[in-house]
Amino acid sequence: MFFGSIPALVTPFWSGRVAEDTFADFLEWQIGEGSNALVPCGTTGEVATLTVDEHRQVIARTVRVANGRVPVIAGCGTYSTAASIERARTAADVGADAALIVVPYYNKPSQSGLVAHFTAIADASPLPIVVYNVPSRTVADISVETLTLVSQHPKIVAVKDATGNLGRVSDQRLKCGEDFCQLSGNDDMALGFNAMGGVGCISVTANVAPRLCSDFQKAMRESRWNDALMLQDKLYPLHAALFTDASPAPTKYALTRVRPGFPAELRLPLVEASDASRRAVDAALEHAGLI
Questions:
Q1: Among 79, 99, 197, 200, which is 20 to 30 Å from 216 by CA?
Q2: CATH assignment at residue 33
Q3: Which secondary-structure segment (H or E) carries 189?
Q4: Which residues pair with 5 in a beta bridge?
Q5: Nearest to residue 288, comparing CAs of 265, 263, 257?
Q6: Is residue 271 a part of any domain in this protein?
Q7: Which residues constitute the domain of residue 174?
């Protein structure tokens, strides 16, 4: 269902509001550069700062611009099961193709709680579910055994794995089955992730370098591993630079360099990238041939 280069989209703001026209132009650029799906309202989209109305607005605009050309996987996860269900229903109402549901953060559920959480959402959701495992942000970590259990639900079709543990790809492939879609949540590990059975990456870097990220994923799908390695080398400094300050501040700065006029504005508690981060981004963009 999902594969390739899938940007975890930034949300552009202008004077405190969602910059809808800028966002629409950005989405067109992403599709034109070869992105294989779109993820609005994820971590990189500063979803924690969006109001309920803005959450709906951003997903709806993404769906309208995509117009069936690529799937839309809407970020809908919260630390409340009921709220996550409501967000998934909202995403379905405006035409999204799937819901990305993060492992609940802050309340640190047990593995039994995670089974109950994802099962309840899948039972109630009109959309297929992509489980998002990112223990560096959520503290809780959905184990391979727990993911195996919930993957048996017909609505739970994929995982975005940002554990940083490449061995999990093989373990999850063996236990969840070859048809269970595994997407990397770490750009810097996407080469190894796909070699071990993954099929794509929900990517921060694709915001800035969508064509290179698309070409990279395409090379792996076609088993052109030498080409993929060359693109990995080209992109790796950018993968690192985009996390030299709190994300997505470096990414928004990078977008001002590759798309002049793109707003770097963030919402508190995030602030603009530091000078050191900007220097790292500039060097990485130059290395990648983007400036």
A1: 99
A2: 3.20.20.70
A3: none
A4: 201
A5: 257
A6: no
A7: 4-222
Find all residues with CB under 8 Å of 258, minimum gap 6, and list them: 208, 209, 285, 290, 291
Looking at residue 1, its pLDDT comes to 82
Helix extents (H) in 177-248? 190-195, 210-221, 225-241
CA distance 190 to 205: 11
Catalytic one of 155, 160, 218, 234: 160
Strands of 31-167 (E only): list them: 73-75, 98-102, 129-133, 156-161
Tell me which residue has tokens 């803005």.
54
Question: Is residue 264 assigned to a domain?
Answer: no
Identify the helix (H) or strand (E) that includes residue 184: strand 181-184
Per-residue model confidence as pLDDT tens digits over 215-229: 999 999 999 999 999
Q: Is the pLDDT of residue 258 over 90?
A: yes
Active site residue 160: yes
Question: In angstroms, rounded to a whole number, what is the distance separating the alpha carbons of residues 260 and 279?
Answer: 17
pLDDT at 195: 97
pLDDT tens, residue by residue, 108-128: 999 999 999 999 999 999 999
pLDDT in tens, 63-93: 999 999 999 999 999 999 999 999 999 999 9
Q: Which two tokens stand for residue 182?
A: 């595994």
Q: Is residue 216 part of a domain?
A: yes
Backbone phi, psi, residue 111, to 5°: -65, -35
Q: Is residue 81 part of a domain?
A: yes
The pLDDT tens digits of the residues spanning 21-33 come to: 999 999 999 999 9
Give the chain's domain count.
1
Residue holding tokens 């543990």?
Answer: 165
The torsion angle over the Cα atoms of residues 144, 110, 140 and 4, rounded to 10 degrees, is: 40
Is 132 among the residues known to form the active site?
yes
